[in-house]
Structures are given as structure tokens and as C-alpha cells.
Amino acid sequence: MAEAAAKRSIKFIVTRQDSSDSKPYTEEFQIPYRPNMNVITALMEIQRNPVNAEGGSTSAVCWESNCLEEVCGACSMVINGKPRQACTALVDHLEEPIRVAPMSTFPVVRDLVIDRGRMFKALKKVKAWIPIDGTYDLGPGPRMAESKRQWAYELSKCMTCGVCLEACPNVNDKTDFIGPAAISQVRLFNAHPTGEMNKEERLDALMTDGGIEGCGNSQNCVRSCPKGIPLTTSIGAMNADTTKRLFKKWLGM
């Protein structure tokens, strides 16, 4: 058994792109199999020995990774047609040949490296933070009710990996929809006792072009989220809050 595993190889088909303005192409690699490999391990093997399946020397595949524990969100890519984290994509659980490609929602920098700036601009738009002066110690903040803290913690697991945007049909180069992640973060920070001070400002941002009205309720986001965040629940809650906010503005309240 051990000898058979040592001789086994795995076929990878990687979608590559030499620069942001060049055309994509595919390149095949045969990776020596080892038990418990993930996609990152395979990419590291290519980096160690950059030779394609035809035996020709090539450049190492570029990708991003950091924590390797599905916490940082850096290693997001499309694996066998599904956007996910490469660090938790185990080779033994994937159908061969294993096809790896960059997420198409974001501009490609090189190979599997993408520019997730669209996500961070969306977070800036909705002010997904708690503004404090920071020049002096404010002491302990107000406490949250345990029932609220539990579901707020689930929302805080977002690692800005971009998988939900890749899965959403309403996020593409023809729209400016901010996507489900930013909407969910509005719910998170509006629930915070201190962050609530800027609640109306965040709701107003959701009501602008590219905001919550861009959601088509496909629900792909909640099915694809690696952290299991209840994104559609957040979108529904923010729909209700923005509707209330709209009526208050009409009534001058």
C-alpha cells in the first residue's frame, strides 16, 4: 500500500495568467501523491519543482496563502468549479483531474493571485468598523446581551475571502453591487452598542446605488460561505432596516 501511494501521481490543470493584461491559459502538472495533501501542498510541490506534465521547465504557479487554517481567507480560488479555500481542499476528496483557477469576480494579478480591492471598497463604503477617538483609554465598553452576542459572533467570522462574491450572480464587472459580505458586516456593526451610533449612516450607504437593492436572492452566498455565516438572514434583516429607514426619511423623522 505504501509503495503504491509513493508511485501514485495526481493530475492538476491550472489556469494561469502571466500578468493582469495578458490572456489566460491552462497548464498541466503531475504531482507526486502524499497522504493528506491539500491544494496548497500541491502548489508548493510545483513551486519546488516547476516542471509541467510534458516534462518542460516552467515558472512556479503564483498563489496567495497565509494561515493555512481557513482563517485569513487569502487562498480563495476556484477548485473543480467551486470557489473555496485551497488550504481545506483535500486532494483525497477531489475528483481528478483537479482543476484550479482564479476567482473570476476579481481582477487577476497573476495566475491564482487576485485583487480583492472590490471587497475592501465595499467595507469602506458601509463603514464596517466602530469609530472611536483612540487618543485615550475609554475604559470597558457597554456589554452586549448574550443572545445578541452569540449571533453577532457568527457574523464576525467573515474573513473577506471573497467566496460569497464569486458565487453571487449579481456581483460581476457589469454591476457595482457591494455583495453579501459587506451587507452582513453592516448588521454586525449596527448590533454593537458603540457601533450603533453610526447605524443610520451605514443604512444610508446600503440604500445608495450598488447597495442592498442589487441582491437577487439567489442564496448562492450562504451555501458557499466557508464559515457558514447566515448571509441571507443578514440580508433579510438589513432589507427590513433599510425599509424602516426609508419611511422615516420620507416622514422627516
UniProtKB/TrEMBL annotation:
In which domain of life is the source organism classified?
Bacteria
Full protein name: Succinate dehydrogenase iron-sulfur subunit
Organism expressing this protein natively: Paenibacillus mesotrionivorans
